[in-house]
Specification:
Blueprint lengths: L11 E4 L6 H15 L3 E6 L5 H14 L3 E7 L2 H10 L4 E5 L8 E7 L8 H13 L13 E3 L3 H10 L4 H7 L2 E5 L9 H7 L3 E5 L20 H10 L3 E5 L6 E4 L5 E2 L1 H12 L5 E5 L4 H9 L3 E5 L3 H11 L3 E3 L5 E2 L9 H15 L3 H6 L5 E8 L5 H11 L5 E2 L4 E5 L2 E7 L5 E8 L2 H19 L1
Parallel strand pairs: 2-3, 2-4, 3-6, 7-8, 7-9, 12-13, 12-14
Antiparallel strand pairs: 1-5, 4-5, 9-10, 10-11, 14-15, 16-20, 17-18, 18-19, 19-20
Helix pairs in contact: 1-2, 1-4, 3-5, 6-12, 9-10, 9-12, 14-15
The chain binds magnesium ion.
């Protein structure tokens, strides 16, 4: 039997009152308290439906193990992460399902440094959960719950202390912010106003039914933002996901900026000779080029923000980033932080007096091609061995799927975690080139199947 698992790439998630219930969350609270307690645990939530009952359940579970609670209410995940170490807490819990559709909710667990707990700690929490082996506090040793409303101000002050506020204040940028009716709207609009920007807010009321748009800031989901930026003549659009650990940008013409581009714009200015960028193997050629031009180096990780965060801390990297718009800025904190990322972008625009589209046009363009191939379930396990043999003479990384590097691009061949299929990502300097590279991946998989 395979080990029972609850944690996915970013915490535990499920459909509200179906796979994610108050009973499960109560028990999970006990397992978290047993594993990372005793001590103070900071609890927060995003604007999703179910947040009220799930925060109460997780708090009840944590209290039963003897933990004390600081309830900070509605906050973005990076805001909770920022205050955990500053409140001298043993850890933190945020009730969120990040960018998932509205019917989902979930839990992310942080350690005392504010970073999501390691895979090892997740496994411990899971084993306590399934073995029902909980710490139980004596009746006369139970701790209490306190409320704290300072987290958002602390986070905003922290961000401002790491950027040149004066240079931004002089630029008077017009910024449209689409907060997806969730907690990003509690931080980024205030932060931008403090920086002297004129802010126009979209979907800023907290509403767990997500009436404005789906919480994932994909190009299709932020059409209203793109139109608004253009029609009001704004300099920039910012869209957050449900818990605002990510920021997606829109330039002054209403064009979406890919995560590879926003990360490269930031990386180009932060990385120096000898610096290191930590990024998952799914990141593209543009990031590789940017790092190379800076005389810096890449430290590749498996796909997942938790792994990036831990690696950034472990090797003291100057920056971390993902192609989905997640930027990890270690001088503030080694986690994905949407408001911090937004501040870095407006700082660069202000310092250099450039439009966002100009910053993008300075970067080379690459083209991507994605394919997926269904594999008979019984053949999934033998695929990787064969692919490893076929590619043994290539320049490659095999920590998570197989990434092959070529002079003009790369391919990533990766099994799906949930379905019997392999995904192929290719990137090249032209559309044809990307297609040719993807074909190499398809051929390899077909060869392994035959
Ligand atoms: Mg998120």
């Amino acid at each position: 039997m395979t080990r029972k698992k609850m944690f996915g790439t970013n915490g535990v998630r499920g459909v509200i009152n179906e796979t994610m219930t108050v009973d499960l969350v109560l028990k999970l609270g006990k397992a978290i308290g047993t594993t990372i307690g005793p001590g103070k645990i900071v609890v927060g939530r995003d604007a999703r439906n179910g947040g009220e009952m799930f925060s109460k359940s997780v708090i009840a579970g944590l209290l039963s193990t003897g933990c004390s609670i600081v309830n900070i209410g509605y906050v973005p995940t990076p805001t909770l992460q920022y205050v955990v170490p500053r409140m001298d807490a043993s850890g933190g819990v945020v009730i969120t399902a990040s960018h998932n559709p509205a019917e989902f909710n979930g839990i992310k667990v942080m350690g005392s440094n504010g970073i999501e707990t390691s895979r090892e700690t997740e496994t411990k929490i899971e084993s306590v959960f399934f073995s029902n082996n909980f710490t139980v506090s004596a009746w006369d040793n139970l701790a209490s719950v306190t409320q704290d409303k300072t987290a958002i101000d602390q986070h905003i002050a922290g961000i401002k202390s790491h950027i040149d506020t004066k240079v931004i204040q002089k630029r008077h940028l017009v910024v449209v912010i689409d907060s997806a009716n969730s907690v990003g709207g509690l931080v980024t609009p205030k932060l931008m106003r403090d920086l002297g920007c004129k802010v126009i807010s979209l979907n800023s009321q907290l509403d767990g039914s997500f009436p404005g748009r789906s919480p994932e800031p994909t190009p299709e989901n932020v059409i209203e933002l793109r139109k608004t930026v253009k029609s009001v003549g704004a300099d920039l659009g910012i869209a957050h996901d449900g818990d605002a650990d990510r920021a997606t940008f829109v330039d002054e013409s209403g064009n979406i900026v890919s995560g590879d581009h926003s990360l490269s714009i930031i990386a180009k200015r932060i990385l120096k000779k000898g610096s290191t960028l930590v990024t998952p193997i799914s990141s593209g050629k543009l990031i590789e080029d940017t790092v190379e031009q800076a005389g810096a180096k890449i430290d590749w990780t498996v796909v997942g923000s938790v792994d990036v965060s831990h690696r950034v801390e472990e090797i003291n990297a100057e920056l971390g980033g993902e192609e989905n718009g997640g930027v990890f800025y270690p001088p503030l904190q080694s986690v994905r932080d949407g408001p911090m990322t937004s501040a870095l972008i407006v700082e660069i625009m202000s310092k250099e007096g450039k439009k966002l589209s100009e910053l993008i046009s300075e970067l080379p363009t690459y083209y991507t091609e994605k394919q997926k191939l269904k594999i008979p379930a019984e053949k999934m396990s033998s695929m990787k061995e064969k692919l490893l043999v076929f590619t043994k003479d290539e320049e490659r990384i095999t920590i998570d799927g197989i990434k092959l590097f070529y002079d003009d691009g790369w391919i990533l061949i990766r099994p799906s975690g949930t379905e019997p299929l392999y995904r192929i990502f290719a990137e090249g300097k032209t559309v044809d080139n990307a297609k040719k590279l993807a074909k190499i991946g398809v051929d390899l998989i077909e060869r392994a199947l035959s």
